[in-house]
């Protein structure tokens, strides 16, 4: 009660992390020596299906690197686990930013090592049925850190998507286009994005620059026959106009972080039959009425689960203890959709997994 609902804009605008500071930090955090040293300590193949948790009774004595003892967190962790750790159906986070997450946590290694060894809270909020993620690289400055993103994509359960975010549209030029065409040829790349338009408050990139970068990247996606990951914020009319003119009707599309009405969702579905919408942990907030309505009414064969990590900490997770979300928290979206629809969570997860496999070919 009385809680305000975060959204894609507030998380990105208020974050202490900005794309502008990103490239400067990356060079220090991802040297070739660090990446190689981190990879040598990891198994050749990540077995995400095997059990990885100690009994919850051990929480009292498990040390936590971010707080003195995990026993101080027992109550909310116990509630989190009781609500989100019941299903065995594998799920994939269809949209996260590992580069941003690792930079802010100063992590020098793989997703596997981050989820299992970074801190006790992360370990105990990671479900056994987490089965991987789509890592979205939307800052061209990071693309130059080739060893870093290739190391991230080297894990069996991590796939990639590259594109210039609309808030970085001023970086779109011939050199960036050449880099994009190059990185898209990597064997683990499954989509182009996130790209699109962002007219929200605080977006100081001129609309015409955004449109130009968007249109040219759409052309590349069509040329490469890659699915699209679309970021559309307060710009539905222009996104709709551009995409309906340029994108083939059968093209595979992930409309990321969908926060519009169900009527708008139906509009997209009516023209692009292979379009799916992604819901984030915003759905866990009681004031997210639009998102709740979409969650109740969207056909399950149109639903994707995403965290947009490191953004969107789910409701119920104390932000004074957990400052960033991780890909395993996509389970909170499935749990909330399950409650809103009165549908078993296993059913939600089964549909979402098939939808993710359909869009990304994994």
Describe it.
- The protein is α/β, with parallel strands linked by helices and 362 residues long.
- 43% of the residues lie in helices and 13% in strands.
- Helix 10 links the parallel strand 3 (158-162) and strand 4.
- Helix 11 runs parallel beside helix 12 (236-246) and helix 15 (331-341) packs across helix 16.
- The chain is globular, with a radius of gyration of 19 Å.
Strand content: 5-15%
Order of helices and strands: HHHHEHHHEHHEHEHEHEHEHEHH
Rg for CA atoms: 19 Å
Structural class: alpha/beta
Head-to-tail CA distance between termini: 40 Å
Mean pLDDT, all residues: 84
The main sheet comes to: 8 strands, parallel
Q: Report strand order across the widest sheet.
A: 1-2-3-4-5-6-7-8
Describe, in short, the structure shown.
The chain is of the alpha/beta class and about 350 residues long. The protein has helices at about 10-15, 20-30, 30-40, 75-85, 100-105, 110-115, 120-125, 140-145, 145-155, 175-185, 205-225, 235-245, 260-270, 290-295, 330-340, 345-360, and strands spanning about 90-95, 130-135, 160, 190-200, 230-235, 255, 275-280, 305.
């Amino acid at each position: 009660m009385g809680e305000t609902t975060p959204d894609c804009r507030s998380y990105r605008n208020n974050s202490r992390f900005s794309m502008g500071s990103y490239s400067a930090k990356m060079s220090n955090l991802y040297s070739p020596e660090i990446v190689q040293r981190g990879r040598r300590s990891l198994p050749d193949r990540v077995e995400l299906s095997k059990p990885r948790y100690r009994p919850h009774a051990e929480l009292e004595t498990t040390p936590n690197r971010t707080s003195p003892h995990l026993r101080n967190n027992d109550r909310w962790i116990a509630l989190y686990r009781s609500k989100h750790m019941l299903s065995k159906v594998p799920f994939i986070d269809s949209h996260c930013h590992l580069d941003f997450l690792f930079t802010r946590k100063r992590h020098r290694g793989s997703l596997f090592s981050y989820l299992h060894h970074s801190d006790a809270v992360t370990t105990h909020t990671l479900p056994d049925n987490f089965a991987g993620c789509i890592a979205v690289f939307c800052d061209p400055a990071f693309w130059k850190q080739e060893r870093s993103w290739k190391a991230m994509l080297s894990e069996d359960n991590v796939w990639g998507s590259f594109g210039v975010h609309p808030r970085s549209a001023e970086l779109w030029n011939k050199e960036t286009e050449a880099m994009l065409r190059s990185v898209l040829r990597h064997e683990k790349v499954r989509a182009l994005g996130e790209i699109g338009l962002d007219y929200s408050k605080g977006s100081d990139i001129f609309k015409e620059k955004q449109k130009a970068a968007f249109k040219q990247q759409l052309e590349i996606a069509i040329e490469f026959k890659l699915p699209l990951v679309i970021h559309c914020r307060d710009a539905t009319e222009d996104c709709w106009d551009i995409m309906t003119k340029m994108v083939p009707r059968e093209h595979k599309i992930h409309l990321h972080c969908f926060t519009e009405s169900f009527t708008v969702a139906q509009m997209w579905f009516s023209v692009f039959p292979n379009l799916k919408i992604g819901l984030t942990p915003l759905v866990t907030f009681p004031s997210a009425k639009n998102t709740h309505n979409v969650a109740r009414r969207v056909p399950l064969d149109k639903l994707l689960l995403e965290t947009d990590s490191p953004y969107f900490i789910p409701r119920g997770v104390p932000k004074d203890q957990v400052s960033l979300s991780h890909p395993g928290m996509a389970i909170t979206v499935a749990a909330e959709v399950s409650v809103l629809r009165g549908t078993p969570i296993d059913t939600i997860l089964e549909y979402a997994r098939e939808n993710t496999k359909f869009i990304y070919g994994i």
